[in-house]
Write a structure and sequence with these properties.
Elements: E1 23-30, H1 33-39, H2 48-64, E2 68-74, E3 77-82, H3 93-110, H4 112-116, E4 127-134, H5 137-166, H6 172-179, H7 184-195, H8 204-208, E5 210-226, E6 233-248, H9 256-260
Antiparallel strand pairs: 1-3, 1-4, 2-3, 2-5, 5-6
Helix pairs in contact: 2-3, 5-6, 5-7
2'-deoxyguanosine-5'-triphosphate binds next to β1, α1 and α2.
Length: about 270
């Protein structure tokens, strides 16, 4: 077919191919979730329905894009790590980023009722996305550690803050004042000595965030097969190995998690 005289406009498109050998991380974050969480009556400091919905939506992204080797989420954000040699969408950053965020956003709406029941979704939520490339395992692990450290830091603050308000009867301004200049040890001490709460015993989901990885699971399924020379079909059980997304609520900063799951990262070579 002859080229139209308009065809040249294609050349205005810029190349955004992600550098080879690098892990491609797509991080998304809810837009103005300060407001969204208020409007939808999220419980403070953590709403398990909201966290469950984030996690469900992230699973839907992984099932759609199997090159994601690990995903990590907390609060209104989720990071997806594509294996370093992925050729999905020819490694085009905008394609990867927009597919992740739109699959996630539509899943968030699609599964809303499963988690929030009668609480209506009042307006369409949206998520921003960004792409960051990490060339080494060390950099990638530091990235994930950074997100988990952020989760810990915020959760400790929010836990003390809302305990001071909800149980201690302080106003939000008083609680903010009380926590000014305090370090982690001070916050643990306030929880323990004033409210008899040991932060270590708080929910792992809230302290550590959610890590999603693939696991192989054997499944027994019944199949109908036709046996030769016989009229009727026979039911037999067969064992199938299936890849499934599994959630972990554990430390991913130290070595243990990575020692236990050596297949997530490829060796730097
Ligand atoms: P952004 O991301 O710049 O558009 O603005 P925000 O408001 O989304 O800010 P961000 O992402 O830094 O902080 C997340 C907000 O979401 C924060 O205001 C607290 C809220 N949020 C997230 N998870 C929960 C939850 O489980 N319970 C409650 N009550 N709020 C939550
Ligand atoms: Mg923000
Ligand atoms: Mg946000
Ligand atoms: Mg956020
Ligand atoms: Mg098309």
């Amino acid at each position: 077919m002859a080229k139209s005289k308009f065809e040249y406009v294609r050349n205005f498109e810029t190349d955004d191919t992600c550098l080879r050998n690098c892990y491609i991380v797509v991080r998304l974050d809810g837009r103005n979730f300060h407001r969204f969480s208020e409007q939808h009556n999220f419980t403070k400091p953590n709403d398990n329905r909201a966290l469950g919905l984030m996690s469900r939506s992230a699973r839907s992204v992984m099932e759609d894009m199997e090159d994601v080797v690990i995903a990590y989420g907390q609060s209104d954000e989720f990071s997806f790590v594509f294996k370093r040699n992925s050729t999905l969408f020819r490694r085009r950053a905008s394609k990867l980023m927009t597919h992740v965020t739109s699959q996630f956003s539509s899943s968030y709406v699609f599964y809303w009722r499963e988690f929030f029941g009668e609480q209506p979704l009042l307006y369409p939520p949206s998520f921003d996305g960004r792409v960051v490339l990490y060339p080494t395992n060390h950099n990638l692990r530091d990235y994930l550690s950074w997100r988990q450290a952020d989760c810990h830091f915020n959760n400790l603050y929010n836990t003390v803050f809302w305990t001071l308000v909800q149980t201690g009867g302080l106003s939000t301004a008083q609680a903010e004042d009380r926590l000014k200049g305090t370090v982690a040890a001070d916050k643990n001490e306030i929880l323990f000595s004033e409210f008899n709460i040991n932060y270590n015993n708080e929910s792992a989901l809230h302290k550590k965030g959610t890590t999603l990885i693939w696991t192989k699971q054997n499944e027994t399924v019944t199949k109908c097969i036709k046996v030769s020379n016989e009229e009727e079909e026979k039911e037999v059980s067969v064992i199938r190995s299936r890849r499934r997304v599994q959630a972990h609520y554990c430390d991913i900063i130290g070595e243990q998690f990575w020692d236990e799951h050596p297949d997530i990262l490829e060796d730097d070579a």
